[in-house]
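Sequence of Cytochrome c oxidase subunit 2 (Geobacillus thermocatenulatus).
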Amino acid sequence: MNKGLCNWRLFSLFGMMALLLAGCGKPFLSTLQPAGEVADMQYSLMLLSTSIMVLVIVVVAIIFVYVVIRFRRRKGEENKIPKQVEGSHKLEIIWTVIPIILLLILAVPTVLTTFKLADVKAMNDKKRDKNTVVVNVRANQYWWEFEYPDYGIITSQDLVVPTNEKVYFNLIASDVKHSFWIPAVGGKMDTNTDNKNQFWLVFDQKATDKAGGVFYGKCAELCGPSHALMDFKVRPLPRDQFDAWVKKMQNAKKPVVTDPVAKEGEAIFNKSCIGCHAVTPLDKRPAQARTAPNLADFGDRERIAGILEHNEENLKKWLRDPNSVKPGNKMAGTYGHLTEEQIDALTKYLMSLKVE
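Predicted 3D structure, token representation.
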């Protein structure tokens, strides 16, 4: 008896915790707080399908309880056989038609939404409007590259987009399968190595303000030991601010370093890092040569390695042992030879990389 009571208490505790945690969510990372047209459509489908399922469960539960009570065996009626309804055409029609109606209620908006979300004709039109924003997303273990082909700009880890308009994406992977997902803005889509997937998203300005101006993106396909750490940040901007950002990136020059310590770091960078990393957003190298994140705006980023708070201490932690931050990353083991003085200098230089 006591054991059963203890198990019941544990079950109740876990149930309460699950209910409490289910309500946890932040506007920059919650699918239940939609932040754009795509997210709104998908959220509406979730509500519709959930409502239909709950309705079916409730009706079945009511019928079950009714049958259990109404037709239970009573004392003195052990041999009484209730009226048999097997082969009733009316009942057969009812429980055949009702599921068909429910399926149609769910299928019609689902199909319409699917075709609407798959409409990417605007991005493939050779004469597309100059204001149509297209981003080539390239997923790598374990970082993200964002190329703006119409502007000649390449960034990494931080995606910048305009608000209140469609932004189109070409998705591809450089090594293994990944999946591009911004939970608050729209459902995930795979990035493959052998074919390109395309879709679009809209970033709502009001929702962006509510989220503090930043949304979180994640990899949603198991891709290796640091899959859970393969994050990126999205900074939606009003159209005029986005245009200003584009102009600033297009006019960016190679940073001029004046601080003596930072100059030492620049020398170390040019000797050890420049072969993989670029420090200008106008990187002309082919995709195959871009084997590491572009660092042009590193000093302005939201996170280090996509997950650590952006400060010098965390950058030094990354430079000392990248594998302790992101196991299995391609940079792991390449910086074990740096002294603390060299790490300090390199940190000073990297933090100075800003697009003015």
